[in-house]
Amino acid sequence: MSGHSKWSQIKRQKGVADIKRGTIFSRLGNAITLAAKRGGGNPTANFTLRMAIEKARTANMPKENIERAVKRGAGELGGAQIEEVIYEGIGPSGIGIIIEVATDNKNHASATIKNTLSQYGGKLASSGAVTYQFQRMGKLVIDPAGKSAEEIELNIIDAGAQDFEEEGELVVCYTRPAELEKVKKMLEGQGTAIREATLTWEPNNFVNITNKVLAEKILKLMSSLEDLEEVVAVYSNFDLPKEFLS
User: Fold this and answer.
1) Stated pTM of the model
2) What is the pLDDT of residues 213-227, one digit of tens each?
3) Same domain flag for 127 and 176
4) Which helix (H) or strand (E) holds 238?
């Protein structure tokens, strides 16, 4: 692997305060609903659901919202059913974009994403046109919590992670998708503080953006996609010089 998503790093630096609170809760609820729909409503037996609930609690999502999202996914509530859809897009300079969506109206979601992409010079792509440029991975965001860099590194290696990198005061490690739960449990058993655990799409190669105006356009596109209520996550393979992010 040549590197890891720069957009996820930018989002972490910006913080959740830049995204509307209502949108955050809707997105987290949809992720919980999808997880419960795929693997059942018991978080003890459904690791993906447990991760989604932990993320929602970290964002201070109300308990009743979480419980309602679980029941909806488990089929205990009426109303339209949420579906998971992955859209693939081509952005400015040919960057690849993967957009994970949870929606009860695929036609509306498709039209909204298509319109957002076109506003910034992008377009929807056919299935498989972008995903081959990425690989599916598990991702754990670690808070060193006073541990030395050497101790954290040894713990990550012992737990069987595939790769890791420092992001400011945090450490991010990557696993095979099927090993995310195992690695998380081993790290927690070693006393390592896990701030976030999720599945992600990581680029195989990057498209280097060296024009600042173009970089600003790409960042506006990514933020606009992230702000859509039905969007769960957005991934891309662009790379920017650090000075463009100041």
Assistant:
1) 0.86
2) 999 999 999 999 988
3) no
4) strand 238-239
